[in-house]
């Protein structure tokens, strides 16, 4: 295994956790604006409609995907700036 990958692993894990927290906060804000409620419906909530559940899942998936990609990319760029090496090289 490449030394850069080994050194980047703990950095990537911390960045990933922070990204998850950020994505969750962004989703909660967006969902609050879209639905006017604090929490998205749980898929097994019998009071929630199919539309509510699928809309929440769509928005959540899009936000988490974009935030994960941005955070992962930013972490790799930051690692390169500090070490001079790209994590996958």
From TrEMBL:
InterPro entries cross-referenced by the UniProt entry: DUF4235 (IPR025329)
Q: Which UniProt keywords apply?
A: Membrane, Transmembrane, Transmembrane helix
Indicate yes or no for the key word Transmembrane helix: yes
Descriptive protein name:
Uncharacterized protein DUF4235
- List where the protein spans the membrane: 12-31, 51-71
Domain of life (superkingdom):
Bacteria
């Amino acid at each position: 295994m490449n030394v850069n990958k080994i050194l980047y692993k703990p950095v990537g894990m911390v960045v990933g956790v922070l990204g998850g927290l950020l994505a969750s906060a962004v989703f909660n804000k967006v969902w609050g604006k879209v639905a006017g409620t604090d929490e998205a419906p749980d898929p097994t909530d019998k009071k929630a409609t199919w539309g509510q559940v699928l809309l929440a899942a769509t928005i959540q998936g899009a936000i988490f995907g974009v935030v994960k990609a941005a955070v992962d990319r930013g972490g790799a760029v930051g690692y390169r700036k500090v070490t001079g090496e790209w994590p996958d090289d």
